[in-house]
Design brief:
Blueprint (H helix, E strand, L loop, with lengths): L2 H23 L17 H21 L4 H30 L14 E6 L6 E8 L2 E9 L10 E8 L2 E6 L1 H9 L1
Parallel strand pairs: 3-5
Antiparallel strand pairs: 1-2, 1-4, 2-3, 4-5
Helix pairs in contact: 1-2, 2-3
Length: about 180
């Protein structure tokens, strides 16, 4: 077995092992470079390109009479071609699909809500907050220690122990003064 054939088999075997590891253990994030934002550095592209390079090189070297230089060149082109195809078929569509409609409690800070159940000065009420994922109801307490009536608009200032600490929305005060 020649050096090139060994390189091809190693590339192919590493790609297959990587695919099995991802299949068994989930998405392997160890090769991803989120800070670089270069699509070329996506793990699926690197592995699919290397695997295609190994498979093409091995098959072309083994079953054709092409020279080693031509086989290497074709294997590189096939590897790059499959990596580019992988980008447009998997990476790009999946990057758009990974947007979630879920949220964390900390993302509620700064959101506007409406009081559904009056919030007493030193107790809990309920606030309705509209999010991308829909309308949600949360326990709420007054940040200022003042009662906030049902129907009032509020701003979420902070979240502690899954309780929204809210204050009255300033524009509602101006609206009440006009009435």
């Amino acid at each position: 077995m020649g050096v090139l054939e060994t390189i091809y088999i190693v590339c192919l075997a590493c790609g297959v092992l990587y695919a099995l590891a991802v299949l068994l253990f989930g998405h392997a994030d160890w090769m991803s470079h989120h800070h670089a934002h270069l699509p070329v550095l996506q793990p699926i592209l690197l592995v699919s390109g290397a695997t295609a390079f190994g498979a093409a090189g091995y098959l072309l070297g083994r079953f054709t009479s092409l020279s080693d230089l031509v086989v290497v060149g074709l294997a590189v082109l096939i590897g790059i071609g499959l990596a580019v195809a992988s980008y447009f078929l998997w990476v790009q569509p999946m990057s758009r699909a990974e947007n979630s409609t879920g949220y964390t409690m900390s993302q509620l800070v700064g959101k506007l809500g409406e009081v559904c159940t009056t919030i007493p000065a030193n107790g809990l009420g309920e606030v309705l907050v509209k999010m991308v994922s829909g309308t949600t109801f949360h326990m709420a307490a007054s940040l200022d220690g003042e009662q906030i009536r049902q129907g009032s608009r509020v701003v979420v200032v902070e979240v502690r122990d899954h309780v929204l600490h809210v204050t009255g929305f300033p524009h509602d005060d101006a609206k009440k003064e006009e009435e």
